[in-house]
Design a protein that fits this description.
By secondary structure, this protein is mainly alpha-helical. The chain has 11 helices and no strands. The longest helix is centred in the first third of the chain and has 33 residues. The model has no long low-confidence stretch (mean pLDDT 93). Zinc ion binds next to helix 3 and helix 4.
């Protein structure tokens, strides 16, 4: 195993854990908007988190490891180190942008992704609220990308780490100084961009698809002109949030 992979394996969990703790405390001490939904909502999201940690350990991570091991090794030897890793992160984020967009457009994918959007308030716990069907479909998509592009394990670890850090941040209810947030949002997806994606108005839900980098949306014409304000209603237009069990069953229900 090379040095970069070792470093990432050592520090990824620690960095993500500390960052989550900072955001969880920060959004309670200095919230951007008044909380909605209370503890039942938080517990629902924690339920998804527990399920998804279990899935990650048993299926998602082993599948990614298997794919990095099984891909045909066509990359030249000199294409190694931090620069190729940065290139891989940008390519993966580009592909995840389109995967996220497909999740909004393809009805069967939206059935699962809708569970994430039905949350009627946003905070750090929203960033782990994903239906197991979406988690498994995303893992399959990622494995295909790894196999096709011969993405090494170090790139996957770096990308997954960045996704966790930025996703927790962009869903958080942390109050941020507008000038500083604007500066960060020229490169990364911040709450002011992502909260609009969670607005309970379909035109806004179907916009702002970026995960890590904020430049894909303006580049591909999917940036919403809506500005985040404290009174924006979160969720899915005309669809109220439901219980944890109802959310688990929801994608499999018959609909006309
Ligand atoms: Zn979405």
């Amino acid at each position: 195993m090379d040095d970069i992979t070792q470093t990432l394996l050592h520090y990824k969990g620690l960095v993500v854990g500390v960052w989550l703790a900072i955001l969880l405390v920060g959004e309670r001490l200095v919230p951007a908007v008044e909380r909605v939904g209370g503890w039942p909502r938080v517990l629902r999201n924690v339920g998804f988190w527990i399920l998804n940690v279990g899935l990650s350990l048993t299926i998602v991570v082993p599948l990614s490891y298997w794919a990095t091991d099984s891909a045909i090794d066509w990359r030249p030897q000199w294409f190694a180190g931090w620069l190729p890793l940065a290139v891989d992160v940008i390519i993966l984020d580009f592909l995840i942008y389109w995967w996220h967009r497909a999740n909004h457009v393809v009805p069967v994918l939206w059935r699962f992704h809708e569970v994430h959007h039905l949350d009627e308030f946003l905070d750090v716990t929203s960033s782990v609220r994903f239906h197991f069907g979406e988690v498994l479909l995303s893992a399959g998509f990622r494995a295909l990308i790894i196999l096709a592009l011969n993405i090494p394990l170090a790139s996957i670890l770096a990308f997954e780490g960045l996704v966790l850090l930025v996703a927790a941040f962009q869903h958080s209810n942390l109050s941020l100084e507008p000038g500083r947030e604007r500066a960060v949002s020229t490169l990364l997806v911040t709450p002011s961009i992502h909260w609009v994606h969670h607005r309970a108005v379909r035109a806004d839900t179907d916009s702002n698809y970026g995960t890590i980098f904020s430049f894909w949306d303006p580049l591909f014409g999917s940036r919403s002109p809506t500005q985040r304000t404290p009174d924006l209603a979160m969720g899915v237009e005309a669809e109220p949030d439901v219980s944890f069990i109802a959310l688990l069953i929801r994608p499999f229900r018959y609909r006309n």
